[in-house]
Amino acid sequence: MCGIVGYIGNRDAFPIVLKGLKRLEYRGYDSAGIALINDDRLSVFKKQGKVDALEEFTIGKNLSGNIGIGHTRWATHGEPSDRNAHPHYTNSKKFAIIHNGIIENYAQIKAELISKGYVFHSDTDTEVLGNFIEDIYTNLPNKSVEEAIRFALKRIVGAYCILVVHEDEPEVIYAARKGSPLVIGIGKGEHFLASDATPIIEYTREVVYVNDYEMAIVRKDELILKNLGNERQEPYITKLDMQLGAIEKGGYDHFMIKEILEQPSTIFDCLRGRLETQNPSIQLSGIDKYKEQFLTGQRIIILACGTSWHAGLVAEYIIEELCRIPVEVEYASEFRYRNPVVHSGDIIVAISQSGETADTIVAIDQAKKNGAIIMGVVNAVGSTIARLSDTGVYTHSGPEIGVASTKAFTGQVTVLILVALKVALEKGTITKERFNQLCIELAGVPDKVQEIFVQNDHINKIAQKYSHLKDALYLGRGYNFPIALEGALKLKEISYIHAEGYPAAEMKHGPIALVDESLLSVFIATKDPYYEKIISNIQEIKARKGMVLAIVSKGDTMISGIADDIIEIPEIDELIAPILNVIPLQLLSYYIGVAKGFDVDKPRNLAKSVTVE
Amino acid sequence: MCGIVGYIGNRDAFPIVLKGLKRLEYRGYDSAGIALINDDRLSVFKKQGKVDALEEFTIGKNLSGNIGIGHTRWATHGEPSDRNAHPHYTNSKKFAIIHNGIIENYAQIKAELISKGYVFHSDTDTEVLGNFIEDIYTNLPNKSVEEAIRFALKRIVGAYCILVVHEDEPEVIYAARKGSPLVIGIGKGEHFLASDATPIIEYTREVVYVNDYEMAIVRKDELILKNLGNERQEPYITKLDMQLGAIEKGGYDHFMIKEILEQPSTIFDCLRGRLETQNPSIQLSGIDKYKEQFLTGQRIIILACGTSWHAGLVAEYIIEELCRIPVEVEYASEFRYRNPVVHSGDIIVAISQSGETADTIVAIDQAKKNGAIIMGVVNAVGSTIARLSDTGVYTHSGPEIGVASTKAFTGQVTVLILVALKVALEKGTITKERFNQLCIELAGVPDKVQEIFVQNDHINKIAQKYSHLKDALYLGRGYNFPIALEGALKLKEISYIHAEGYPAAEMKHGPIALVDESLLSVFIATKDPYYEKIISNIQEIKARKGMVLAIVSKGDTMISGIADDIIEIPEIDELIAPILNVIPLQLLSYYIGVAKGFDVDKPRNLAKSVTVE
Question: Which residues form the Glutamine amidotransferase type-2 domain (chains A, B) (predicted)?
């Protein structure tokens, strides 16, 4: 959350920074702003709203300058407004600062600064940090911006990625990170700074990922990295492997629908080179490397947040069933603050699309200290979690720009099924027959996802019918319980309808009190051993006059006679069904969001990768 | 769910059965009905709505008869209506049947019966079972009702407690159970049958708990128990230890408020004889019996549903912290249908207020087969789970009649803290100092709960303010995350407001999209290590103009400056705080429910003990 961009070189900074902000807008879009240095003069332009509002606001203004830093915000302290937008001036108006993260001890520092006469023009913790740096700078005998930043960063508690410019040093951008991501692109006589690589790839493919507690002193033709102890660090240059087309909409109305429809090919990419169906086998070098540990591991702990947490729940059911290893799925945010029981030899699976989820990063850091092995299931190549993990399996879903995660989720579940199958075969907890069967079924998933899309118009019609909804329950059992949670989350995110997921049998322990004529219950009711029980649950809802939409197996006549609406899914083994069953729920949310006229790629209040805690 | 009552003796059956139904109404109140046998003639009275509606409907009718069976329904198959109400006649009108449970293969049996010419007057599975018995009866050469029932029960799939009467045998009530509870009270020349003991205690204290797969042939002066193999079973007579006053409202408007306000004494009762504070120690014979297993156990699996599941989540945090044993909390309904990994020596903790929760019963049955030790945390003495468990600790909360569980929850958490403390001390994973401190803090809980009640008027005012609410989020971290879930569940159950609980940090991964001026976020934000983080979360909500109600520690000035409303909780160790923090959330739900004019003891669609799957 919060996107950060910087440019220093010979070109005009403004258009580059502005375009970069648009690429990063999925990270937050409460307000946006840009600071430029032109002829040794610092100027700041900022505006509440999306980046478009900033662009409009700057029309006709003098936007020259070869140094620029920009920010698109997801509010933490202080409501979205012009004054709370970044960059923030300091009191002298010589410094400008942008920041992604949360300074936790800001209140105390602010009080100190106020007692020294500082005045604040916003409610943000960022402005406090800026003036704190300024105050240190003013009192330093040698007036070094670099030293002032270093001093300040040592005293603050919290997470940050900051960019700082100073009028008196119109040839430098200072940057530093702890807990929030930062990539620096290396051009010819120019440098690009950003929260992720998407604003950079059209200019250069050579990048440096800045590490926690590192500071970058960036000139157009020089990049210096130091740790907070003022020791030089060697920049490690990585080559980007990403296509520009992958981060553009390519004719679709929204990234979200583009990404939903991409799933046959992203799942295929995820399986490619890993799943062999002729003589069924699975290649995963990330598992081979730690084979012994997977075979002897007494416990797997899955750490994740949001949609990735749901993928983890699906994996819990599948891994326990196939590998007979107890699995615990934890919210990373909860795990990290407890004193959880982790033993040496436990396997931690960290799931994150962006690989930058703040809580997940800290959580795996902690588990590592207890001697656990970390396996990352990450989409963004080279991201922090990918680098922190001992081993990992990428989901290969391509850049996901839509704020509501779709293809990354099916990629995560696919990877986790591959892992479970491979470990189960090695452990001997699955027969070769069942393994072969599941491999073949898995290989058929891309085509079956495509088959679901034949019903898109039908799903859109259902979406129109229910677009007035206020409340919904999503209910499933077994492998499909997490799909109920994920379906409900999608609807919440995109349509702002209060949807809630539950294991179907829990309905009677409270949630059924919500059922009346105006509430929709969405049942995931494809054929599996729970089928009869799910029908009883549907009967219980219908007995109370609730509306029912059911996701059913193709040709189901039993439920179609009871439910108000149905969506059909091709027959598939129940263990793999979650990948298919989530697809219509993604589409339903998308179409309802569009029907309600919402910007589904930028749902209110949200941001994509949650890089604050 | 569904309450069943029967009487056979020399008194008028109707008033006894009617009064019994009122006592059991917490189990369901969609419709009610009574069948009587008078002068060898069977008559049935039934009505949609609560038992009061039935009573009104029967005014002026001939209600004589010394044999009666009655039913108050929680609908599973078929909407609540007169025709779907129990008892159901069979086609000959000679049989009447009442039933609690679900017959899963009813559709197939119904089709067979229809092909034989049977006609159905309701949508229920019960009527199918009744006619199935009749069909068998008709074709038996010896025309034995007993044999017909036995035959039928062997062919059906599902759960049941049934009572059957037949016009040609006006001196017998037939009863049978599998998965749904049944108690028979033994009087002088009379017998009382019921789903639990509450309708019985004013007549007799001697009862027999019927077991699964048992059938009872009940005459006024004879009680015969048989298994389905037609072998006689010796009835095991138990003495009831329950006060009549405990199951009456005693001057309060509702059972719910009575039970909330009882908590200082129910928690005290739960601690009494177990917690010693002079020289701090804990006596729990249920743990002593299996001490070795608790000290060496590698894993604890907690099985529960609904509110009890929330108590289990609190326990997970506490047991892991104090005892360093990994804990997994499972929905019983999910656990039982999977093939979960359970090893010999694992400890299963089953939590259930009623001790009759169907899914939990089956789940522990399964775990037992894998060699796990079962510890029950149950309120109802002598209930099925109490009897199935290897060991256990009663919560001693007294009968809980309000459908929304309150005092049972705090009893469960109290018991689980006692267990964790005792095991931790024995294992040496807690210092004696910390143990002593927690014992003393725990002993202070009843007084501190009482202290919270000083704010009842204040909480009622807040309830009035928010009674128009449509949606709410309940947010907490750590020990208070499950309290957020429980608070949300209470509001759903009693006020039909769509409230949802989340770990506070997960908010940013989706739910925050719901936040606008009309949504209330309830934060549990008492002083603990998460305090600073929770403040950041509150800021994030306020930045998006959401309303905030915070449960805070007494004297908190920081949050009172940010939140719209606060409720104060006496200072207490964070580990024990959940017991206190849930109290204002119970009160808030109660007052909002009352403000909205709802019958808070009988919330729509719900029933107390969930004895169907």
Answer: 2-221
Phi first, then psi: give them for residue A113, nearest 5 degrees: -65, -40
- Domain boundary assignment for chain A: 3-99+160-240, 252-443, 452-601
Distance from the A609 Cα atom to the nearest Cα atom in chain B, whole angstroms: 9
Q: Give the confidence band of A612 by pLDDT, cuts at 50, 70, 90.
A: low
Q: Catalytic residue, from B2, B161, B323, B439: name it.
A: B2
Res. A18: pLDDT tops 80: yes
Q: What is the mean pLDDT of residues A354-383?
A: 90
Chain A residues within an 8 Å CB radius of B604: 513, 516, 544
| pLDDT tens by residue, A316-326 | 999 999 999 99
**A232-233 and A237-239: which strand pairing?**
unpaired
B102 lies within 8 A of chain A by CB: yes
Average pLDDT, whole number, for chain A? 94
Instruction: With beta carbons under 8 A apart, name residues in chain B contacting A498.
Output: 470-471, 498, 500, 514
Per CB-CB distance under 8 Å, the chain A contacts of B512 are: 605-606
Chain A residues touching B481 at Cβ < 8 A: 334
Q: Angle A407-427/A432-443 helices, nearest 10 degrees?
A: 160
A125 interfacial to chain B (CB closer than 8 Å): no
Whether B599 has its CB under 8 Å from any CB of chain A: the answer is no
Write the DSSP symbol of residue A179: B
Amino acid at A63: L
Tokens of residue B337, six digits:
């249908």
Place of tokens 């793999």: A576
Segments of chain B scoring below 50 in pLDDT: none
pLDDT at residue B243, rounded to an integer: 79
ipTM confidence score = 0.83
- CA-closest candidate to residue B338, choices B383, B316, B370, B377: B370
State the pLDDT at residue B130: 97
Task: Let me know if the fold of B3-99+160-240 is the same as that of B252-443.
Answer: no
Q: What is the pLDDT of residue B378?
A: 95
- Using the beta-carbon criterion (under 8 Å), do A104 and B544 form an inter-chain contact? no
- How many residue pairs from chains A and B have C-beta atoms closer than 8 A? 211
CA distance linking residue A599 with residue A494, whole number of Å: 8
pLDDT at residue B612, as a whole number: 67
- Does position A243 have pLDDT exceeding 90, yes or no? no
Looking at residue B159, its pLDDT comes to 87
Which of B 458-477 lie inside 8 A of A, CB atoms?
Answer: 470-471, 477
A606 touches chain B (CB under 8 A): yes
Average pLDDT of the residues in A246-253:
82
Interchain CB contact of A408 with B (< 8 Å): no
Quick one: CA dihedral B400, B403, B407, B410, positive or negative? Answer: positive
Burial class (CB in 10 A: 0-12, 13-18, 19+), B371: exposed
- In this structure, which CATH number among 3.40.710.10, 3.30.230.10, 3.60.20.10, 3.40.50.2020 belongs to the domain B3-99+160-240? 3.60.20.10
Taking only residues 53 to 92 of chain B, the set having a beta carbon closer than 8 angstroms to any beta carbon of chain A reads 75-80
Q: Minimal Cα–Cα distance from B607 to chain A, Å? A: 8
DSSP per-residue string spanning A394-432: E-------SSS-SHHHHHHHHHHHHHHHHHHHHHT-S-H
Long-range contacts of residues B138-141, Cβ cutoff 8 Å, at least 24 apart: B138/B92
CATH number of A252-443: 3.40.50.10490
Average pLDDT on A541-565 reads 95
Region A531-535 average pLDDT: 91
Strands (DSSP E) contained in A430-488 are 471-476
Whether B154 is catalytic is no
Higher-pLDDT residue of A197, A458? A458
Question: Which A residues, 180 through 239, put their C-beta within 8 Å of a C-beta on chain B?
Answer: none
* pLDDT for A449: 98
